[in-house]
Design goal:
mainly alpha, about 300 residues, Serine Threonine Protein Phosphatase 5, Tetratricopeptide repeat
């Protein structure tokens, strides 16, 4: 259609040209028209080629989109299957993560406190006066300490066979660090030593809870139940450890095939600590056991 239009324009131009038009001008016009037609043909070829390339790219994009949609559908099916398989362990994993987070927070607090104490010691050392040398006696030797008692040849050194006990903060921090890093036998020994050496320390409740959790991880369920009972009897109002102790006591009873006792613990947990995260986990565990849960 473009060629016909150009030919018509040329024909009209020739008809309307004056009779006295110079032939050179007509020839130049014809050459320009021919060049224009050649350019139009080249443009049409370029458009056709680009259209083919564009069509190919669109087809490739459509194939790529289809492949991505297929992969996403397969991935969604895989994730759904994994979520279904891991649903039973989700509550326990959540509890373990919470315990780890609490342990890390407690450890950070211990580190900050030790750093502060070290800073105070360094500051005190800087303010101490320089030591002065003791005056020599007539024989040129320093005088003996008048307060020192002469050693007795028959008396053994005091506490020679008693292993030294670390300060409470350091001992508790070491136990907590070993617990966080998974050194459970060492952490259990340190927690037990801490509880025995410092029974009135403010961290005895947490140490007892972590000790019970270690027993549970090592599948020593009877020891775990006894330790969690200690937490519940001595620290029933400690909202940080008591709900978790009762929840894990229930898990330990279920692991020992004591289903009825485990259900009682879960229900008791819901009654005593209804707003805790552990109470929601107890709800889920009862539902997994097929037990109807009372709703208010």
């Amino acid at each position: 259609m473009t060629k016909k239009l150009l030919a018509s324009l040329i024909f009209v131009a020739l008809l309307t040209a004056p009779a006295w038009a110079v032939p050179k001008e007509i020839i130049a016009l014809q050459q320009q028209v021919a060049l224009l037609m050649a350019q139009m043909q080249d443009l049409q070829k370029s458009v056709t080629a680009n259209s083919a390339v564009l069509k190919t790219l669109v087809g490739q994009n459509a194939d790529a989109i289809s492949a991505v949609q297929t992969a996403l559908k397969s991935l969604q099916q895989t994730v759904s299957a994994q979520a279904a398989n891991s649903g039973q362990n989700q509550n326990q994993i959540s509890q373990e993560f919470q315990n780890l987070s609490d342990a890390i927070s407690d450890l950070q607090a211990r580190v900050n406190k030790i750093t502060e104490i070290v800073g105070q010691i360094q500051q005190a050392q800087q303010t101490l006066p320089a030591p002065q040398s003791a005056p020599a006696n007539a024989t040129g030797t320093a005088p003996a300490n008048p307060g020192a008692a002469a050693p007795s040849s028959g008396a053994p050194p005091a506490a020679a066979n008693t292993p030294p006990v670390l300060p409470p903060d350091q001992l508790y921090q070491n136990a907590l660090s070993d617990y966080v890093h998974g050194s459970y036998p060492l952490a259990a020994s340190e927690f037990q030593q801490f509880i025995t050496a410092y029974p009135n320390d403010g961290h005895v409740g947490e140490a007892t809870y972590y000790l019970g959790d270690i027993y549970m991880k090592e599948q020593k369920y009877n020891e775990a139940i006894k330790t969690f009972d200690t937490v519940l009897n001595r620290f029933p109002d400690n909202g940080k450890i008591a709900p978790g102790a009762q929840l894990k006591k229930g898990f330990s009873l279920i692991a020992l095939k004591e289903r009825a006792a485990g259900i009682r613990e879960f229900r008791s947990l819901i009654d005593h600590y209804p707003r805790s995260q552990e109470a929601q986990q107890a709800h889920d565990e009862l539902a997994a056991l097929g037990v109807r849960v009372r709703t208010e």
